[in-house]
Design brief:
Length: 370
């Protein structure tokens, strides 16, 4: 097992220094980021942590300042270099931040959180907990709410940031050692490739109305209006770089979809009852409300699944049995939402393709045929 990276971190604020440090193209790099996403749609990349071993075996930690002009351009070749395995923990949001700032998504990828789930350790295990479980090291939690955009960063911030990559190689080695006897390294690689593809696509959710519980109480026409509003909100939030809730909150979106105001005056009357209503965007809201999308005929409807509850329970029981046989959690094999999507139209969603479908399809064949 590789020793944890214990070197003192180096602050990198010169793109040429970053390029020189990684010119030897190490076989793997440990990566993490710090970002701020309180007032924007896109994460604001504030720091990139990189750990690697030099040719002579010396372990190094770089704290890279992406606010420096040209630094993201210098990072991009590292992120896309196929010779370097990128070891990260639960990196979905980090990938979005790097994609937006640097134009590249780190690949190939090894996600230690996903690997822990497939190895049977647990679903969604946090970095600090997993470090302690696999290495015995208890990490400090003191800088989780730091302002990472300020300069200079404090010594405590720098040490906290370095800790986020120091143990990734040790965890990677431990997890591979657990996965290889089980024949599941390919499962983790498959999940990582899907994570990378999702980050590269940066596509919004196709059916965003399904994630709102209140949508199930709307009739079909109202649900389609809600779908239009949420898709418009997603586009506007991206283009204006604002949080979606700042553009149009869920409660008001549902109210507009339900009442279907026919003109500007009716919409204005509805908005006056909501103090955070985007009245300056009223024309755009009204236009999106009454502009059907080309794929609405394919839109699934949000529902309480009362009629399918018995069938869903039966499917979940099969999933539970399969998960127990594999020694993993139910949620690692198939979440309730994925199963609901499968039962909705009989098509296997992307999240259930690959190794999950191979494990589940034979056992579920009779239930899905009903």
């Amino acid at each position: 097992m590789t020793d944890p990276v214990s070197a003192a971190p180096h602050w990198i604020n010169d793109p040429s220094s970053l390029a020189a440090s990684l010119a030897h193209a190490p076989a793997r790099v440990a990566l993490d980021t710090e970002f701020i996403r309180e007032r924007t749609y896109w994460p604001q990349l504030a720091l990139v942590q990189v750990a690697f071993d030099d040719d002579d075996g010396t372990s190094r930690v770089l704290l890279v300042d992406p606010l420096v002009p040209g630094m993201c351009d210098a990072l991009a070749p590292v992120l896309r270099d196929p010779r370097m395995l990128k070891v990260m923990h639960s990196p979905s949001e980090d990938l979005v931040a790097l994609r937006h700032a640097c134009g590249e998504v780190p690949r190939p990828l090894f996600d230690t959180q996903a690997a822990a789930a497939v190895a049977g350790i647990g679903v969604g295990v946090g970095y600090q907990k997993l470090v302690e479980q696999l290495t015995g090291v208890a990490l400090a939690k003191g800088e989780t709410r730091s302002d990472w955009l300020r300069r200079p960063l404090s010594a405590a911030q720098l040490e906290y940031a370095a800790d986020d990559v120091r143990h990734l190689f040790e965890m990677h080695d431990a997890l591979r050692g657990m996965l290889e006897p089980l024949g599941r390294v390919a499962w983790v690689d498959e999940d990582a490739a899907r994570t990378v593809a999702n980050a590269q696509a940066e596509a919004g959710e196709r059916w965003p109305h399904l994630s709102l519980r209140s949508a199930q109480f709307l009739d079909r026409d109202a649900q389609l209006r809600l779908l239009r509003l949420l898709r418009w909100r997603e586009r506007h939030a991206r283009e204006s770089d604002l949080p979606k809730s700042w553009v149009l909150d869920n409660e008001l979106a549902v109210a507009i979809a339900r009442q279907a105001p026919a003109d500007a005056s009716a919409l204005d009357a509805l908005m006056q009852a909501h103090p955070k209503a985007p009245r300056r965007l009223a024309d755009a809201v009204l236009a999106s409300l009454h502009a059907p999308a080309d794929d609405e005929a394919d839109a699934p409807m949000a529902r309480d699944n009362g009629g399918d509850r018995q069938r869903l329970r039966a499917v979940q029981q099969v999933v539970t049995a399969q998960a127990e046989a594999l020694g993993i959690a139910d949620g690692t094999l198939a979440s309730r939402r994925w199963l609901e999507a499968l039962l909705e139209d009989g098509r296997w969603p992307d999240a259930l393709q690959g190794w999950r479908r191979a494990q589940l399809e034979p056992a579920l064949a009779s239930l899905l045929a009903r």
